[in-house]
Specification:
The protein has a domain of about 200 residues: Glutamine Phosphoribosylpyrophosphate, subunit 1, domain 1 (4-Layer Sandwich). Helix content is about 45%, strand content about 15%. It is built from 27 helices and 17 strands. Strands 2-3-1-9-8-10 form a 6-stranded antiparallel β-sheet. Strands 4-5-6-7-11-12 form a 6-stranded antiparallel β-sheet. Helix 8 links the parallel strand 14 and strand 15. The longest helix has 27 residues. The chain is globular, with a radius of gyration of 24 Å. The model has no long low-confidence stretch (mean pLDDT about 95).
Protein backbone atom coordinates (compact mmCIF):
# COMPACT_ATOMS: atom_id res chain seq x y z
CA UNK A 1 0.00 0.00 0.00
CA UNK A 2 1.39 3.36 -0.96
CA UNK A 3 0.72 6.91 -1.98
CA UNK A 4 1.87 7.88 -5.46
CA UNK A 5 2.50 11.22 -7.15
CA UNK A 6 4.08 12.54 -10.31
CA UNK A 7 4.51 15.14 -13.03
CA UNK A 8 4.66 14.71 -16.79
CA UNK A 9 6.23 17.64 -18.62
CA UNK A 10 5.19 17.62 -22.28
CA UNK A 11 8.48 19.23 -23.31
CA UNK A 12 10.12 15.85 -22.78
CA UNK A 13 12.60 17.27 -20.27
CA UNK A 14 12.58 17.34 -16.48
CA UNK A 15 13.00 20.95 -15.41
CA UNK A 16 15.35 21.70 -12.48
CA UNK A 17 12.37 22.50 -10.27
CA UNK A 18 10.57 19.20 -11.03
CA UNK A 19 12.51 17.22 -8.42
CA UNK A 20 11.75 19.58 -5.49
CA UNK A 21 8.13 19.77 -6.65
CA UNK A 22 7.91 15.98 -6.60
CA UNK A 23 9.56 15.79 -3.18
CA UNK A 24 6.95 18.18 -1.76
CA UNK A 25 4.14 16.16 -3.33
CA UNK A 26 5.45 12.86 -2.02
CA UNK A 27 6.01 14.27 1.47
CA UNK A 28 2.29 15.06 1.83
CA UNK A 29 1.60 11.31 1.46
CA UNK A 30 3.74 10.21 4.41
CA UNK A 31 0.72 8.81 6.26
CA UNK A 32 -0.05 6.50 3.32
CA UNK A 33 3.45 5.02 3.36
CA UNK A 34 5.63 5.57 6.43
CA UNK A 35 8.13 2.80 5.66
CA UNK A 36 10.09 4.20 2.71
CA UNK A 37 10.08 6.62 -0.23
CA UNK A 38 11.21 6.34 -3.83
CA UNK A 39 11.51 8.79 -6.75
CA UNK A 40 12.95 8.89 -10.25
CA UNK A 41 12.87 11.00 -13.43
CA UNK A 42 13.14 10.22 -17.13
CA UNK A 43 12.38 12.21 -20.31
CA UNK A 44 10.07 14.71 -18.63
CA UNK A 45 8.35 12.12 -16.41
CA UNK A 46 8.89 12.42 -12.64
CA UNK A 47 7.28 9.81 -10.40
CA UNK A 48 7.47 9.11 -6.69
CA UNK A 49 5.78 7.20 -3.91
CA UNK A 50 5.57 6.55 -0.18
CA UNK A 51 5.48 2.87 0.75
CA UNK A 52 3.63 0.93 3.42
CA UNK A 53 5.47 -2.38 3.15
CA UNK A 54 3.10 -5.36 2.95
CA UNK A 55 4.60 -7.91 0.54
CA UNK A 56 8.35 -8.50 -0.03
CA UNK A 57 9.36 -6.16 2.76
CA UNK A 58 13.01 -6.05 1.70
CA UNK A 59 12.69 -5.98 -2.08
CA UNK A 60 9.46 -4.23 -2.93
CA UNK A 61 10.52 -0.57 -3.00
CA UNK A 62 9.30 1.53 -5.93
CA UNK A 63 9.59 2.73 -8.65
CA UNK A 64 9.64 -0.75 -10.23
CA UNK A 65 11.42 -1.33 -13.56
CA UNK A 66 11.43 -3.96 -16.29
CA UNK A 67 14.62 -5.79 -17.33
CA UNK A 68 16.18 -2.97 -19.39
CA UNK A 69 14.64 -0.17 -17.27
CA UNK A 70 12.77 1.22 -20.28
CA UNK A 71 9.41 0.70 -18.54
CA UNK A 72 8.93 1.88 -14.98
CA UNK A 73 6.01 2.53 -12.69
CA UNK A 74 4.64 3.37 -9.26
CA UNK A 75 1.54 1.73 -7.79
CA UNK A 76 -0.73 2.18 -4.78
CA UNK A 77 -2.48 -1.05 -3.89
CA UNK A 78 -2.19 -4.82 -4.07
CA UNK A 79 -2.37 -7.28 -6.98
CA UNK A 80 -3.88 -10.42 -5.48
CA UNK A 81 -3.43 -12.72 -8.48
CA UNK A 82 0.26 -11.87 -8.87
CA UNK A 83 1.52 -15.45 -8.21
CA UNK A 84 -0.51 -16.79 -11.16
CA UNK A 85 0.44 -13.86 -13.39
CA UNK A 86 4.10 -14.20 -12.46
CA UNK A 87 4.17 -17.87 -13.50
CA UNK A 88 2.45 -17.05 -16.79
CA UNK A 89 4.81 -14.17 -17.53
CA UNK A 90 7.91 -16.16 -16.61
CA UNK A 91 6.75 -18.84 -19.04
CA UNK A 92 6.69 -16.10 -21.69
CA UNK A 93 10.34 -15.26 -20.93
CA UNK A 94 10.04 -12.32 -18.52
CA UNK A 95 12.65 -12.05 -15.76
CA UNK A 96 11.70 -10.99 -12.23
CA UNK A 97 14.10 -9.43 -9.74
CA UNK A 98 11.79 -9.09 -6.71
CA UNK A 99 9.08 -11.08 -4.93
CA UNK A 100 6.69 -8.12 -4.81
CA UNK A 101 3.25 -8.16 -6.40
CA UNK A 102 3.87 -4.81 -8.14
CA UNK A 103 6.53 -6.14 -10.50
CA UNK A 104 4.00 -8.23 -12.44
CA UNK A 105 2.47 -4.98 -13.73
CA UNK A 106 5.46 -3.80 -15.77
CA UNK A 107 5.78 -7.23 -17.37
CA UNK A 108 2.03 -7.48 -17.91
CA UNK A 109 2.22 -4.20 -19.83
CA UNK A 110 5.12 -5.53 -21.91
CA UNK A 111 3.20 -8.71 -22.69
CA UNK A 112 -0.36 -7.49 -23.20
CA UNK A 113 -0.10 -3.76 -23.88
CA UNK A 114 -3.32 -1.79 -23.48
CA UNK A 115 -5.15 -4.90 -22.24
CA UNK A 116 -2.95 -5.39 -19.19
CA UNK A 117 -5.37 -3.91 -16.59
CA UNK A 118 -7.97 -6.52 -17.50
CA UNK A 119 -5.58 -9.23 -16.34
CA UNK A 120 -5.13 -7.73 -12.86
CA UNK A 121 -7.21 -8.72 -9.83
CA UNK A 122 -6.80 -6.36 -6.94
CA UNK A 123 -7.05 -2.79 -5.78
CA UNK A 124 -4.70 -0.36 -7.45
CA UNK A 125 -3.99 3.10 -8.77
CA UNK A 126 -0.90 3.09 -10.94
CA UNK A 127 1.24 5.23 -13.23
CA UNK A 128 3.47 3.67 -15.90
CA UNK A 129 5.98 5.19 -18.32
CA UNK A 130 7.22 3.45 -21.45
CA UNK A 131 10.28 5.52 -22.37
CA UNK A 132 10.89 3.70 -25.67
CA UNK A 133 7.39 4.08 -27.09
CA UNK A 134 6.89 7.48 -25.39
CA UNK A 135 3.71 6.32 -23.68
CA UNK A 136 2.40 7.31 -20.25
CA UNK A 137 -0.49 5.49 -18.56
CA UNK A 138 -2.67 6.06 -15.49
CA UNK A 139 -5.02 3.27 -14.36
CA UNK A 140 -7.54 2.95 -11.54
CA UNK A 141 -8.82 -0.42 -10.36
CA UNK A 142 -12.10 -1.99 -11.49
CA UNK A 143 -14.26 -0.83 -8.55
CA UNK A 144 -12.44 2.36 -7.51
CA UNK A 145 -11.06 1.01 -4.24
CA UNK A 146 -7.91 3.11 -4.53
CA UNK A 147 -8.05 6.83 -5.40
CA UNK A 148 -6.30 8.63 -8.24
CA UNK A 149 -6.52 12.35 -9.09
CA UNK A 150 -5.06 14.38 -11.91
CA UNK A 151 -4.78 17.90 -13.35
CA UNK A 152 -4.19 18.52 -17.05
CA UNK A 153 -2.94 21.62 -18.86
CA UNK A 154 -1.32 22.29 -22.23
CA UNK A 155 2.11 21.96 -20.59
CA UNK A 156 1.89 19.10 -18.15
CA UNK A 157 -0.07 16.37 -16.40
CA UNK A 158 0.06 16.18 -12.61
CA UNK A 159 -1.29 13.15 -10.71
CA UNK A 160 -1.44 11.84 -7.15
CA UNK A 161 -3.26 9.60 -4.69
CA UNK A 162 -4.60 12.64 -2.85
CA UNK A 163 -5.49 16.18 -3.84
CA UNK A 164 -3.18 17.67 -1.20
CA UNK A 165 -0.25 16.23 -3.15
CA UNK A 166 -1.45 17.92 -6.34
CA UNK A 167 -1.73 21.22 -4.49
CA UNK A 168 1.80 20.81 -3.12
CA UNK A 169 3.13 20.90 -6.69
CA UNK A 170 2.33 24.62 -6.85
CA UNK A 171 1.13 24.19 -10.44
CA UNK A 172 -2.63 24.54 -9.84
CA UNK A 173 -4.93 27.47 -9.25
CA UNK A 174 -7.32 26.89 -6.37
CA UNK A 175 -10.80 27.64 -7.68
CA UNK A 176 -14.10 26.37 -6.30
CA UNK A 177 -16.23 24.15 -8.52
CA UNK A 178 -19.70 25.41 -7.57
CA UNK A 179 -21.70 22.72 -9.43
CA UNK A 180 -19.63 20.11 -7.58
CA UNK A 181 -20.41 21.88 -4.29
CA UNK A 182 -24.13 21.59 -5.03
CA UNK A 183 -23.71 17.86 -5.64
CA UNK A 184 -21.66 17.50 -2.46
CA UNK A 185 -24.37 19.07 -0.30
CA UNK A 186 -27.10 17.06 -2.02
CA UNK A 187 -25.47 13.62 -1.90
CA UNK A 188 -22.68 14.01 0.69
CA UNK A 189 -20.09 13.26 -2.00
CA UNK A 190 -18.98 14.65 -5.34
CA UNK A 191 -19.96 12.10 -8.00
CA UNK A 192 -18.05 11.01 -11.08
CA UNK A 193 -14.89 12.70 -12.32
CA UNK A 194 -15.44 16.08 -10.65
CA UNK A 195 -13.99 17.38 -7.38
CA UNK A 196 -14.60 20.59 -5.44
CA UNK A 197 -11.63 22.08 -7.28
CA UNK A 198 -12.10 23.32 -10.83
CA UNK A 199 -9.51 21.56 -12.97
CA UNK A 200 -8.83 18.62 -10.63
CA UNK A 201 -10.42 15.34 -11.68
CA UNK A 202 -10.85 11.82 -10.36
CA UNK A 203 -10.08 8.80 -12.46
CA UNK A 204 -13.25 6.72 -12.63
CA UNK A 205 -13.32 3.08 -11.53
CA UNK A 206 -12.18 0.78 -14.33
CA UNK A 207 -10.71 3.70 -16.27
CA UNK A 208 -7.38 4.16 -18.03
CA UNK A 209 -5.72 7.38 -19.15
CA UNK A 210 -3.50 6.73 -22.18
CA UNK A 211 -1.11 9.52 -23.19
CA UNK A 212 1.08 9.59 -26.31
CA UNK A 213 3.94 11.84 -25.19
CA UNK A 214 4.97 12.69 -28.76
CA UNK A 215 1.60 14.37 -29.40
CA UNK A 216 0.14 14.87 -25.91
CA UNK A 217 -3.61 14.35 -26.05
CA UNK A 218 -5.65 13.07 -23.16
CA UNK A 219 -7.32 9.73 -24.03
CA UNK A 220 -9.61 8.24 -21.39
CA UNK A 221 -11.13 4.81 -21.87
CA UNK A 222 -13.04 2.30 -19.77
CA UNK A 223 -11.45 -1.13 -19.60
CA UNK A 224 -14.07 -2.76 -17.32
CA UNK A 225 -17.70 -2.44 -16.28
CA UNK A 226 -20.00 -4.60 -14.18
CA UNK A 227 -20.69 -7.64 -16.36
CA UNK A 228 -24.11 -7.88 -17.92
CA UNK A 229 -25.94 -11.21 -17.75
CA UNK A 230 -28.25 -11.28 -20.75
CA UNK A 231 -30.48 -13.90 -19.18
CA UNK A 232 -30.58 -14.79 -15.49
CA UNK A 233 -29.76 -18.39 -14.69
CA UNK A 234 -32.63 -20.31 -13.12
CA UNK A 235 -30.99 -22.20 -10.28
CA UNK A 236 -32.19 -23.25 -6.81
CA UNK A 237 -31.33 -20.84 -4.00
CA UNK A 238 -29.18 -23.55 -2.41
CA UNK A 239 -26.95 -23.63 -5.51
CA UNK A 240 -26.53 -19.84 -5.45
CA UNK A 241 -25.58 -20.08 -1.77
CA UNK A 242 -22.87 -22.60 -2.63
CA UNK A 243 -21.55 -20.35 -5.41
CA UNK A 244 -21.53 -17.28 -3.17
CA UNK A 245 -19.80 -18.98 -0.26
CA UNK A 246 -17.19 -20.63 -2.48
CA UNK A 247 -16.37 -17.37 -4.27
CA UNK A 248 -16.21 -15.33 -1.07
CA UNK A 249 -13.90 -17.94 0.44
CA UNK A 250 -11.65 -17.73 -2.63
CA UNK A 251 -11.65 -13.93 -2.61
CA UNK A 252 -10.98 -13.78 1.13
CA UNK A 253 -8.17 -16.33 1.14
CA UNK A 254 -6.54 -14.61 -1.84
CA UNK A 255 -6.63 -11.28 0.00
CA UNK A 256 -5.10 -12.74 3.17
CA UNK A 257 -1.65 -12.94 1.53
CA UNK A 258 0.59 -10.65 3.57
CA UNK A 259 4.09 -10.50 5.07
CA UNK A 260 2.81 -8.38 7.98
CA UNK A 261 0.10 -8.97 10.64
CA UNK A 262 -3.44 -9.06 9.24
CA UNK A 263 -6.91 -8.87 10.82
CA UNK A 264 -10.49 -7.81 10.08
CA UNK A 265 -13.14 -5.31 11.11
CA UNK A 266 -16.08 -7.07 12.78
CA UNK A 267 -19.34 -5.18 13.37
CA UNK A 268 -21.46 -8.23 14.09
CA UNK A 269 -23.51 -7.63 10.93
CA UNK A 270 -23.89 -10.25 8.24
CA UNK A 271 -21.25 -8.88 5.82
CA UNK A 272 -18.31 -8.66 8.18
CA UNK A 273 -19.33 -11.78 10.11
CA UNK A 274 -19.51 -13.96 7.01
CA UNK A 275 -16.20 -12.50 5.86
CA UNK A 276 -14.50 -13.42 9.15
CA UNK A 277 -16.02 -16.90 8.94
CA UNK A 278 -14.38 -17.27 5.51
CA UNK A 279 -11.00 -16.31 6.98
CA UNK A 280 -10.86 -19.39 9.22
CA UNK A 281 -10.16 -19.45 12.97
CA UNK A 282 -6.37 -19.78 13.02
CA UNK A 283 -4.78 -16.62 14.34
CA UNK A 284 -7.50 -14.27 13.07
CA UNK A 285 -7.69 -10.94 14.90
CA UNK A 286 -10.88 -8.86 14.75
CA UNK A 287 -11.71 -5.33 15.86
CA UNK A 288 -14.80 -3.26 16.63
CA UNK A 289 -15.79 -0.14 18.54
CA UNK A 290 -18.92 1.18 20.23
CA UNK A 291 -20.22 4.41 21.74
CA UNK A 292 -21.67 5.03 25.18
CA UNK A 293 -25.04 5.95 23.59
CA UNK A 294 -26.89 2.58 23.70
CA UNK A 295 -28.68 3.10 20.37
CA UNK A 296 -25.29 3.58 18.65
CA UNK A 297 -23.50 0.71 20.37
CA UNK A 298 -23.49 -2.70 18.64
CA UNK A 299 -20.54 -4.30 20.39
CA UNK A 300 -22.60 -7.14 21.83
CA UNK A 301 -23.31 -8.41 18.30
CA UNK A 302 -19.63 -8.40 17.38
CA UNK A 303 -18.73 -10.11 20.65
CA UNK A 304 -21.31 -12.82 20.01
CA UNK A 305 -19.96 -13.54 16.52
CA UNK A 306 -16.35 -13.49 17.73
CA UNK A 307 -17.13 -15.99 20.51
CA UNK A 308 -18.96 -18.25 18.05
CA UNK A 309 -16.10 -18.20 15.53
CA UNK A 310 -13.36 -18.43 18.16
CA UNK A 311 -11.35 -15.46 16.88
CA UNK A 312 -9.04 -13.15 18.82
CA UNK A 313 -11.37 -10.17 19.25
CA UNK A 314 -10.63 -6.68 20.57
CA UNK A 315 -13.12 -3.86 21.05
CA UNK A 316 -13.43 -0.51 22.78
CA UNK A 317 -16.16 1.79 24.05
CA UNK A 318 -15.15 5.16 22.59
CA UNK A 319 -15.72 8.51 24.28
CA UNK A 320 -13.66 10.69 21.96
CA UNK A 321 -12.87 14.38 22.16
CA UNK A 322 -14.85 14.87 18.95
CA UNK A 323 -13.89 18.50 18.36
CA UNK A 324 -10.17 17.71 18.50
CA UNK A 325 -10.81 14.63 16.38
CA UNK A 326 -12.65 16.75 13.81
CA UNK A 327 -9.63 19.03 13.48
CA UNK A 328 -7.38 16.01 12.92
CA UNK A 329 -9.60 14.19 10.44
CA UNK A 330 -10.26 17.19 8.25
CA UNK A 331 -6.60 17.11 7.21
CA UNK A 332 -7.48 13.93 5.30
CA UNK A 333 -10.62 15.40 3.72
CA UNK A 334 -9.00 17.42 0.90
CA UNK A 335 -11.53 15.60 -1.30
CA UNK A 336 -14.30 15.78 1.30
CA UNK A 337 -17.31 13.59 1.93
CA UNK A 338 -20.20 14.54 4.19
CA UNK A 339 -20.57 11.05 5.67
CA UNK A 340 -20.12 11.45 9.43
CA UNK A 341 -19.29 7.77 9.83
CA UNK A 342 -15.71 8.90 9.13
CA UNK A 343 -15.43 9.07 12.95
CA UNK A 344 -16.09 5.41 13.79
CA UNK A 345 -14.20 4.30 10.67
CA UNK A 346 -11.13 6.21 11.81
CA UNK A 347 -11.46 5.01 15.40
CA UNK A 348 -11.76 1.32 14.53
CA UNK A 349 -8.86 1.73 12.09
CA UNK A 350 -6.78 3.27 14.86
CA UNK A 351 -7.62 0.38 17.17
CA UNK A 352 -6.72 -2.19 14.51
CA UNK A 353 -3.44 -0.45 13.63
CA UNK A 354 -2.20 -1.02 17.17
CA UNK A 355 -2.09 -4.74 16.35
CA UNK A 356 -2.05 -5.27 12.56
CA UNK A 357 -0.97 -3.54 9.35
CA UNK A 358 -3.72 -4.97 7.12
CA UNK A 359 -7.46 -5.26 7.87
CA UNK A 360 -10.18 -6.93 5.81
CA UNK A 361 -13.51 -5.12 5.61
CA UNK A 362 -17.03 -6.21 4.69
CA UNK A 363 -17.74 -3.14 2.54
CA UNK A 364 -19.55 -3.85 -0.73
CA UNK A 365 -21.99 -6.47 0.55
CA UNK A 366 -24.87 -3.99 0.75
CA UNK A 367 -24.38 -2.75 -2.82
CA UNK A 368 -24.01 -6.24 -4.29
CA UNK A 369 -26.83 -8.00 -2.44
CA UNK A 370 -29.35 -5.18 -1.72
CA UNK A 371 -28.69 -4.45 1.94
CA UNK A 372 -29.90 -0.88 2.29
CA UNK A 373 -33.32 0.09 3.59
CA UNK A 374 -33.68 2.41 0.61
CA UNK A 375 -34.25 -0.68 -1.55
CA UNK A 376 -37.14 -1.65 0.72
CA UNK A 377 -38.45 1.91 0.62
CA UNK A 378 -38.54 1.74 -3.17
CA UNK A 379 -40.62 -1.44 -2.99
CA UNK A 380 -42.98 0.10 -0.42
CA UNK A 381 -43.36 3.23 -2.56
CA UNK A 382 -45.35 1.17 -5.08
CA UNK A 383 -48.01 0.60 -2.41
CA UNK A 384 -47.73 4.21 -1.26
CA UNK A 385 -48.55 5.42 -4.77
CA UNK A 386 -51.94 3.74 -4.53
CA UNK A 387 -53.01 6.19 -1.83
CA UNK A 388 -55.14 9.18 -2.89
CA UNK A 389 -53.06 12.04 -4.28
CA UNK A 390 -54.25 14.45 -1.58
CA UNK A 391 -53.02 12.04 1.08
CA UNK A 392 -49.62 11.51 -0.55
CA UNK A 393 -48.88 15.16 -1.30
CA UNK A 394 -50.75 17.08 1.39
CA UNK A 395 -51.97 15.20 4.45
CA UNK A 396 -49.05 12.88 5.17
CA UNK A 397 -46.30 15.43 4.40
CA UNK A 398 -48.05 17.95 6.66
CA UNK A 399 -48.28 15.38 9.46
CA UNK A 400 -44.62 14.43 9.08
CA UNK A 401 -43.60 18.10 9.22
CA UNK A 402 -45.29 18.34 12.63
CA UNK A 403 -43.78 15.06 13.88
CA UNK A 404 -40.65 15.72 15.92
CA UNK A 405 -37.62 13.48 15.25
CA UNK A 406 -37.03 10.74 17.79
CA UNK A 407 -33.94 10.68 19.99
CA UNK A 408 -32.85 7.21 18.82
CA UNK A 409 -30.72 6.59 15.75
CA UNK A 410 -33.70 5.30 13.81
CA UNK A 411 -37.06 4.44 15.34
CA UNK A 412 -40.53 4.44 13.79
CA UNK A 413 -41.02 8.23 13.79
CA UNK A 414 -37.67 8.89 12.09
CA UNK A 415 -38.28 6.19 9.48
CA UNK A 416 -41.77 7.47 8.73
CA UNK A 417 -40.56 11.04 8.27
CA UNK A 418 -37.75 9.98 5.98
CA UNK A 419 -39.99 7.70 3.91
CA UNK A 420 -42.62 10.37 3.26
CA UNK A 421 -39.96 12.97 2.43
CA UNK A 422 -38.27 10.64 -0.05
CA UNK A 423 -41.52 9.44 -1.61
CA UNK A 424 -42.35 13.04 -2.56
CA UNK A 425 -39.23 13.27 -4.77
CA UNK A 426 -39.16 12.29 -8.47
CA UNK A 427 -39.84 8.60 -9.02
CA UNK A 428 -37.04 8.53 -11.62
CA UNK A 429 -34.55 8.64 -8.75
CA UNK A 430 -35.89 5.28 -7.56
CA UNK A 431 -34.26 4.17 -4.27
CA UNK A 432 -31.73 7.03 -4.32
CA UNK A 433 -34.57 9.39 -3.34
CA UNK A 434 -33.93 8.38 0.26
CA UNK A 435 -30.26 9.35 0.00
CA UNK A 436 -30.84 12.88 -1.26
CA UNK A 437 -30.45 15.65 1.33
CA UNK A 438 -30.80 18.82 -0.78
CA UNK A 439 -33.67 18.81 -3.25
CA UNK A 440 -34.06 21.25 -6.15
CA UNK A 441 -36.43 23.29 -4.00
CA UNK A 442 -34.04 23.49 -1.05
CA UNK A 443 -31.10 24.14 -3.37
CA UNK A 444 -32.91 27.22 -4.70
CA UNK A 445 -33.41 28.48 -1.15
CA UNK A 446 -29.92 27.60 0.06
CA UNK A 447 -27.78 29.13 -2.70
CA UNK A 448 -27.63 32.82 -3.56
CA UNK A 449 -28.82 33.90 -7.03
CA UNK A 450 -25.20 34.40 -8.14
CA UNK A 451 -24.22 30.87 -7.07
CA UNK A 452 -27.39 29.36 -8.59
CA UNK A 453 -26.41 30.87 -11.93
CA UNK A 454 -23.37 28.56 -11.92
CA UNK A 455 -25.46 25.40 -11.52
CA UNK A 456 -25.76 23.95 -15.00
CA UNK A 457 -27.23 20.53 -14.18
CA UNK A 458 -30.14 19.27 -12.11
CA UNK A 459 -29.38 17.66 -8.78
CA UNK A 460 -30.23 14.23 -10.22
CA UNK A 461 -27.92 14.37 -13.26
CA UNK A 462 -25.35 11.72 -12.31
CA UNK A 463 -28.07 9.38 -11.05
CA UNK A 464 -30.05 9.83 -14.27
CA UNK A 465 -26.97 9.03 -16.36
CA UNK A 466 -26.16 5.88 -14.42
CA UNK A 467 -29.75 4.63 -14.54
CA UNK A 468 -29.74 5.24 -18.29
CA UNK A 469 -26.59 3.12 -18.61
CA UNK A 470 -28.14 0.39 -16.48
CA UNK A 471 -31.38 0.38 -18.50
CA UNK A 472 -29.43 0.23 -21.76
CA UNK A 473 -28.11 -3.12 -20.59
CA UNK A 474 -31.65 -4.40 -20.02
CA UNK A 475 -30.96 -4.90 -16.32
CA UNK A 476 -33.88 -5.57 -13.97
CA UNK A 477 -35.25 -2.88 -11.66
CA UNK A 478 -33.32 -3.90 -8.54
CA UNK A 479 -30.17 -4.65 -10.53
CA UNK A 480 -30.35 -1.15 -11.99
CA UNK A 481 -30.34 0.28 -8.48
CA UNK A 482 -27.41 -1.89 -7.44
CA UNK A 483 -25.49 -0.86 -10.55
CA UNK A 484 -26.07 2.81 -9.73
CA UNK A 485 -24.90 2.34 -6.15
CA UNK A 486 -21.75 0.45 -7.09
CA UNK A 487 -20.85 3.12 -9.64
CA UNK A 488 -21.63 6.10 -7.38
CA UNK A 489 -22.36 5.74 -3.65
CA UNK A 490 -19.91 2.88 -3.13
CA UNK A 491 -16.88 4.31 -4.92
CA UNK A 492 -17.43 8.02 -4.24
CA UNK A 493 -18.53 7.76 -0.61
CA UNK A 494 -17.99 4.40 1.11
CA UNK A 495 -14.64 3.47 -0.41
CA UNK A 496 -13.40 7.06 -0.16
CA UNK A 497 -14.23 7.06 3.54
CA UNK A 498 -12.52 3.73 4.19
CA UNK A 499 -9.41 4.68 2.21
CA UNK A 500 -9.00 8.09 3.86
CA UNK A 501 -9.63 6.97 7.43
CA UNK A 502 -7.55 3.78 7.31
CA UNK A 503 -4.68 5.49 5.51
CA UNK A 504 -4.77 8.23 8.15
CA UNK A 505 -3.29 5.63 10.53
CA UNK A 506 -1.24 3.81 7.84
CA UNK A 507 -3.54 0.79 7.80
CA UNK A 508 -4.16 -1.10 4.57
CA UNK A 509 -7.81 -2.07 4.18
CA UNK A 510 -8.88 -4.83 1.78
CA UNK A 511 -12.42 -5.55 0.58
CA UNK A 512 -12.97 -9.20 -0.53
CA UNK A 513 -16.59 -8.57 -1.53
CA UNK A 514 -15.23 -6.28 -4.25
CA UNK A 515 -13.05 -8.84 -5.94
CA UNK A 516 -14.09 -8.50 -9.58
CA UNK A 517 -15.13 -12.17 -9.77
CA UNK A 518 -17.26 -11.75 -6.65
CA UNK A 519 -18.94 -8.70 -8.20
CA UNK A 520 -19.59 -10.57 -11.44
CA UNK A 521 -21.16 -13.46 -9.52
CA UNK A 522 -23.33 -11.16 -7.39
CA UNK A 523 -24.77 -9.53 -10.51
CA UNK A 524 -25.70 -12.96 -11.88
CA UNK A 525 -27.91 -13.68 -8.85
CA UNK A 526 -31.61 -13.00 -9.61
CA UNK A 527 -33.15 -9.92 -7.97
CA UNK A 528 -35.84 -11.90 -6.18
CA UNK A 529 -33.21 -13.85 -4.22
CA UNK A 530 -31.67 -10.65 -2.87
CA UNK A 531 -34.79 -8.75 -1.78
CA UNK A 532 -37.66 -10.86 -0.50
CA UNK A 533 -40.57 -9.17 1.24
CA UNK A 534 -39.10 -7.11 4.08
CA UNK A 535 -35.84 -9.06 4.03
CA UNK A 536 -32.78 -7.40 2.55
CA UNK A 537 -29.74 -9.42 1.42
CA UNK A 538 -31.87 -12.56 1.63
CA UNK A 539 -29.51 -14.87 -0.25
CA UNK A 540 -26.43 -13.62 1.60
CA UNK A 541 -28.17 -14.12 4.94
CA UNK A 542 -29.15 -17.64 3.94
CA UNK A 543 -25.51 -18.25 3.06
CA UNK A 544 -24.30 -16.90 6.40
CA UNK A 545 -26.92 -18.53 8.65
CA UNK A 546 -25.17 -21.93 8.98
CA UNK A 547 -21.87 -20.26 9.90
CA UNK A 548 -22.72 -17.51 12.40
CA UNK A 549 -25.41 -17.06 15.09
CA UNK A 550 -28.83 -16.75 13.50
CA UNK A 551 -29.76 -13.78 15.71
CA UNK A 552 -26.79 -11.86 14.30
CA UNK A 553 -27.75 -12.73 10.73
CA UNK A 554 -31.35 -11.60 10.96
CA UNK A 555 -31.04 -8.62 13.31
CA UNK A 556 -32.24 -5.20 12.12
CA UNK A 557 -29.67 -3.22 10.12
CA UNK A 558 -28.33 -0.25 12.07
CA UNK A 559 -25.38 1.09 10.10
CA UNK A 560 -21.98 2.30 11.30
CA UNK A 561 -22.76 5.75 12.64
CA UNK A 562 -22.47 8.26 15.48
CA UNK A 563 -24.98 10.41 17.42
CA UNK A 564 -24.26 13.43 15.23
CA UNK A 565 -27.72 14.95 15.60
CA UNK A 566 -27.09 15.23 19.36
CA UNK A 567 -23.46 16.30 19.02
CA UNK A 568 -24.47 19.24 16.78
CA UNK A 569 -26.48 20.63 19.71
CA UNK A 570 -23.76 19.97 22.28
CA UNK A 571 -20.14 19.03 21.53
CA UNK A 572 -20.17 20.51 18.02
CA UNK A 573 -22.29 23.56 18.84
CA UNK A 574 -19.30 25.96 19.05
CA UNK A 575 -17.91 24.58 15.79
CA UNK A 576 -21.31 24.97 14.13
CA UNK A 577 -21.56 28.61 15.19
CA UNK A 578 -17.96 29.36 14.24
CA UNK A 579 -17.99 27.87 10.73
CA UNK A 580 -21.59 28.81 9.89
CA UNK A 581 -21.67 32.30 11.35
CA UNK A 582 -23.86 34.81 9.53
CA UNK A 583 -21.13 37.37 8.75
CA UNK A 584 -18.88 34.86 7.01
CA UNK A 585 -21.79 33.28 5.13
CA UNK A 586 -22.87 36.67 3.85
CA UNK A 587 -19.30 37.65 2.90
CA UNK A 588 -18.70 34.47 0.89
CA UNK A 589 -21.79 35.05 -1.22
CA UNK A 590 -22.51 31.36 -1.82
CA UNK A 591 -25.38 30.71 0.60
CA UNK A 592 -28.46 32.49 1.83
CA UNK A 593 -27.74 33.36 5.50
CA UNK A 594 -31.45 33.29 6.39
CA UNK A 595 -31.79 29.73 5.09
CA UNK A 596 -28.82 28.47 7.09
CA UNK A 597 -30.06 30.32 10.18
CA UNK A 598 -33.41 28.54 9.84
CA UNK A 599 -31.74 25.13 9.50
CA UNK A 600 -29.68 25.76 12.62
CA UNK A 601 -32.67 27.04 14.59
CA UNK A 602 -34.96 24.13 13.68
CA UNK A 603 -32.28 21.57 14.47
CA UNK A 604 -31.45 23.23 17.76
CA UNK A 605 -35.11 23.30 18.77
CA UNK A 606 -35.51 19.61 17.88
CA UNK A 607 -38.39 20.21 15.48
CA UNK A 608 -36.39 18.88 12.51
CA UNK A 609 -33.30 16.76 12.01
CA UNK A 610 -31.04 18.72 9.65
CA UNK A 611 -27.88 16.91 10.76
CA UNK A 612 -26.89 15.68 7.29
CA UNK A 613 -27.01 19.09 5.64
CA UNK A 614 -25.59 21.00 8.60
CA UNK A 615 -22.71 18.55 8.85
CA UNK A 616 -22.00 18.81 5.11
CA UNK A 617 -21.97 22.61 5.44
CA UNK A 618 -19.56 22.39 8.37
CA UNK A 619 -17.24 20.09 6.43
CA UNK A 620 -17.35 22.34 3.37
CA UNK A 621 -16.56 25.52 5.26
CA UNK A 622 -13.67 23.87 7.06
CA UNK A 623 -12.45 22.51 3.69
CA UNK A 624 -12.74 25.99 2.18
CA UNK A 625 -10.58 27.57 4.90
CA UNK A 626 -8.10 24.71 4.96
CA UNK A 627 -7.61 23.99 1.25
CA UNK A 628 -9.20 26.62 -0.98
CA UNK A 629 -7.88 29.68 0.83
CA UNK A 630 -4.44 28.27 1.66
Amino acid sequence: MCGIAGLVDFSGHCAPESRPRLERMVHTLLHRGPDSAGMDECDGVSMGMRRLAIIDLAGGDQPIFNEDRSIWMVCNGEIYNFPELKKELEACGHKFTTATDTEVIVHAYEQWGVDFPRRLSGMFALALHDSKKKIFVLVRDHLGIKPLYYHWSDKQLVFASEIKALLASGLLERQLNIPALADFLSWEYVPGQATLFTGIYKMLPGQMLWLDLQEPKLALQSYWDIPLQAEKEVLPASVWQEYILAQLQRSTQMQMVSDVPLGAFLSGGVDSSLLVACMGKRGVQTFSIGFDDPSYNELHWAQQVAAHLGVDHRDEIIRPDVVALFEHLMHFMDDPIGDFSIFPTYLVSRLARQHVTVALSGDGGDELFAGYESYLAQEKSRLYQRLPVWMQHKLLPALMQRLRPGARKKGLANKAKRFVEGAALPASLAHTRWRLFVTEELRNMLFTPAARAELDKPVSSHIDELFAAARAGQRGALEQGLYVDVRSYLCDNILTKVDRMSMAVSLETRVPYLDKDMVALAFRVPDELKLRGNLTKAILKQTAAPLIPRACVYRPKEGFSIPIKHWLNHEFQPLLEDLLNEDDIRRQGLFNPACIARLKREHGQGSHNHSHLLWALIVFHDWQKRWLSA
